[in-house]
Structure formats: structure tokens, C-alpha cells
Write a structure and sequence with these properties.
The structure holds 2 protein chains of 2 kinds.
Chain A: E1 6-15, H1 20-34, H2 39-59, E2 66-75, E3 79-88, H3 95-99, H4 114-121, E4 124-130, E5 133-141
Antiparallel strand pairs in A: 1-2, 2-3, 3-5, 4-5
Chain B: E1 6-12, E2 15-21, H1 26-41, E3 46-53, H2 59-74, E4 78-82, H3 86-94, H4 97-100, E5 102-104, H5 107-116
Helix pairs in contact in B: 1-2
The chains are: A alpha+beta, B alpha/beta.
Amino acid sequence: MAKSAVLKEVIVTLPMTPEIERDACEKASAVARSMGMSQDKIDEVKIAVIEACLNALQHSKATLREFELELSILGGAEPEALQIAVRDTGVGFSRTQLEGRKPEKPGLRKRGWGLKIIEGLMDEVHIESGASGTTVVMRKTR
Amino acid sequence: MTESMKITVDRRDGIALIYTDGYINNQGGEEIARVAYELIDGGYKRLLLNLEKTKIVNSIGISILIEIIEKMIEIDGRLAFCNLTPTIDKTFHIMGLAQYSSIYPDEASAVEQQKSAE
């Protein structure tokens, strides 16, 4: 991901409680709106944030039951993009392992869509995962 | 923060129209499934989900909709969707729902198509 100047940054720590992803998506939505993003793009950001939070909530196996949401407005004279990082302190995962999973039965695959949805809705996505946790960084241009 | 999914059903010319209002997550999806299976048990084979008042979804909720689609395929029925936001439409396409169900821009065209498919 290319480096850009950070015009504004909001970092919040959220508890891993049921439906906390809605709080996170409302916070991301407010920042996206403040930088003049279109409603369609805001809606895409909201669903991507929901999926990133669900990954942390459901799959991180983090002992510390909280995660960090970092919202950064990037740009120069004007806001150009919104960058969102969702960071947990869980056990991490391997992308290759995930992609190698077989569907439960032939036909429609039901589970494991989170990352595909994030990649389909956002302009850039970068994932760092290891023994000390996972960070999903995603970017949407204004 | 938890808000339950509100669902209303309108039965029209052999088609059951299910109107959702709220977040389609696991609870929302389960609620839709409960209503859909009751309609199937009542003999309805054509279901139309009108998502006009649903603005956010998640992959768990959609996976429950996929289970309903599979059930409809088993009984040779049809599940269709209408009034999706552009983002929900995009998400459904990413998850492949569009291959197994029909998506219409509005309720009138959906009902018309469902009737003519009989």
C-alpha cells in the first residue's frame, strides 16, 4: 500500500461483544461522511468494516477480548482516501490454509466469505497476520 | 445496540412477499429463515424477499439466506430478491447468490416475473 499523508486519525479500542461491529461501522461511516464520500461508497465501507470486525470477533481466539479500530483520512490539500485498520491480538491465520478449505458440500459455499467481501468492496486491502495477531488494513478512495 | 429484525409477510397470487426491516446478521437471518420455512410448510414455493428497509448485512446472515435458497432448490421452488441497495447487490454477487436466485430492481417487476415463471 502506498504511503500517504494522514490528515486526521481516530483510534478506538472496542470490546469483543455481540453486535459491536455495528458500532465500528457507524464510526467508520461518520468519518467517511465527514470527508465527503458518496453514500454508495460509505455503504461499501460499512459492510467491509462489519466483515473485518466479525473476523476478529469470531476467528481471532484473542485472550484479550478487545480489538482496535483505526480510521485515517489520507490525502494532501484535500481528503483523498479513508484507510481503516482492524487489529486484534489473536492467534493469526494463514491465507493459504483458508483458501485450501473445502466447502461443506457441493454447491453454494456458506462460510468463509469475509475476506472476499472486503476485497470486493474496498479499493485496496492488506492483511498482516502472525502469532501476535491480525491486522486488516483497507482503503477506499473518496 | 441489538435491534431485532422486523418482518412482515404479504401473500399474493401464490407468491409470499417477505419484507425485512433491519440488519441481516445471524439473528436477522434466522428470523427470515423461520418465516420462510413456515411459508414453505404452508405450501408456498415462490418467495420474494423485499430488502428495501435493510441497509446492512453480514456474511453470516447471507449464509443463512443461502440455506433457504438450497431448501427452495430441493423443493423445486424459487427464492427471489428485490429492492437491494447497490452495496447489498454487489455483496450478493460476490457470494454467488445471483447464480442461484433472481434479483430484481423493484417489487413490481419481481412479482410479474415470478408469476410468468409459473
